[in-house]
Amino acid sequence: MSTGRVAIDGELNIYRAADLKTLLQGELARSNVLEVDLAGVTEVDSAGLQVLMLAKQTARAENRELRLVGHSPAVLEVFELLDLGAWFGDALVIGPRAA
User: Fold this and answer.
1) What whole-number distance in Å separates Cα of residue 53 and Cα of residue 58?
2) Contact 35, 3 (CB under 8 A)
3) pLDDT tens digits along 39-61
């Protein structure tokens, strides 16, 4: 079983959504398990959230696993506001602060 890892830094927003979607879909195609490190994310908008949700749905549909890890305070704020922790199914643990 192959495991991949991607770290997303900076903004997870509409301006980066298309590139991040392509990145995550490519990494999912190469991995049975993909960990997405969100510790460096400084901002999340609805487009960025949709990219993460699409990646999670794609993984489920293809019997792969997508794990979100190292949630930054910005990610935690959005997940808590929208009550998405259970939907994603990952432990909501704050990652190390980005330098």
Assistant:
1) 9
2) yes
3) 999 999 999 999 999 999 999 99
Calculate the alpha carbon distances from 48 to 2, 32, 51, 58 in Å. 26, 23, 5, 15
39-66 CB burial, b ≥16 within 10 A, e <16: bbbeebeebbbebbeebbebbeeeebbb
SS3 94: strand
pTM summary value: 0.88
Single-letter amino acid, residue 69: V
Cβ neighbour number for residue 74 with a 10 Å cutoff: 17
User: Which structural domains are found in the chain, ordered by start?
Assistant: 3-88 (3.30.750.24)
CA distance 47 to 16: 9
CB 66 within 8 A of CB 56: yes
